[in-house]
Write a structure and sequence with these properties.
This protein is an alpha/beta fold. The chain has two domains: 182 residues, Rossmann fold, CATH 3.40.50; 87 residues, no CATH class. The chain contains nine helices and 14 strands. An eight-stranded mixed beta sheet has the order 2-3-4-1-5-6-7-10, sandwiched between helices. It has a four-stranded mixed beta sheet with strand order 11-12-13-14. A hairpin with a 2-residue loop joins strand 3 and strand 4.
């Protein structure tokens, strides 16, 4: 009896697994270690796609993703591995959230370091709606309104797969991409990551200086913590983009205009996002 080729998908939630069970007529197994196997036909063979969910199989999840996630500041939704490699062959963050305000930037602390890294060889992809309803004012908002889209995202559709149909399920698009990558891997095809060039990063940095009101040349004045003392996620994610981009471009470290209280909170923080910002290099004013 032939043994099915195995792929592991490390998942931050069960959304994609649940979508497959509801929408595809595939056989599946609930394994003793709490992982889940979906049997997917590919031409004349069957692939075992094994879901390792972070919340139910943390030890296995960490063993597969530890090295990869050490290179970023968050946990992407799906990280795909073939059985014969320690390095992933695909990384996906998908979102059903309408692209309103800082919602896009807030998710990039998971992806941006991976997207621009020359060490990471696998495709790193964001999937989400191109437009959606802003519940606060009942108006449609879209990526085209974002400085980030205009300066870089529109030029790399392989990296930012934005769905024109507001009714299209992001899980469906994620599944299509995963099966596309598995098919290429089975055929022995080279899976290439879309490289974000320094020219693109330089243009984006200039766009940030123009459109991010708390970023002027190399000075960042955003409030990294709220009055209550909790993390101000939008400001921190924006600063992470700035420091990652400046470091990759070889520019001088950003200078932070923050209070002494916030400086000490930053220096003592154990969150991955803030620790990475410090490791990228910052000055204080």
């Amino acid at each position: 009896m032939s043994i099915n080729k195995q792929y592991y998908i490390c998942a931050d939630s069960a959304d994609l697994y649940a979508w497959i069970i509801r929408n595809k007529n595939f056989l599946f197994d609930r394994n003793k270690d709490y992982s889940r196997t979906v049997k997917i036909p590919f031409n004349n063979q069957v692939v075992d796609l094994i879901f390792v969910h972070k919340f139910s199989n943390r030890k296995k999840y960490d063993s597969l993703t530890k090295n990869f996630l050490s290179k970023t500041a968050g946990t992407p939704d799906y990280i795909l591995f073939s059985e014969d490699s320690e390095n992933p062959i695909l990384c996906i963050e998908d979102s059903k959230t309408a692209p309103v305000g800082n919602s896009v930037i807030q998710r990039l602390d998971k992806l941006w370091p991976l997207m621009i890294s020359t060490e990471i060889k696998c495709p790193v992809v964001y999937i989400g709606p191109k437009k959606g309803l802003d519940a606060s004012n009942k108006q449609m908002r879209g990526w085209e309104q974002s400085w980030f889209y205009k300066s870089i995202a529109k030029d790399i559709p392989e990296v930012f797969r934005l769905l024109d149909d507001v009714n299209q399920d992001v899980c469906e698009e994620s599944f299509l991409l995963i099966t596309e990558i598995i098919s290429k891997n089975l055929a022995g095809e080279q899976i290439q990551k879309t490289q974000i060039t320094k020219e693109m990063l330089s243009a984006m940095n200039k766009s940030m200086e123009k459109h991010v009101r708390t970023y002027n040349k190399n000075i960042f004045s955003g409030k990294l913590f709220q009055r209550s003392g909790v993390d101000a996620h939008p400001a921190q994610s924006t600063l992470l983009l700035i420091t990652e981009t400046r470091k990759t471009l070889g520019l001088p470290s950003a200078t932070l205009q923050i209070t002494e209280t916030h400086k000490q909170k930053l220096l003592k923080s154990k969150t991955r996002r803030l620790k990475r910002i410090l490791n990228n290099g910052v000055n204080f004013q």
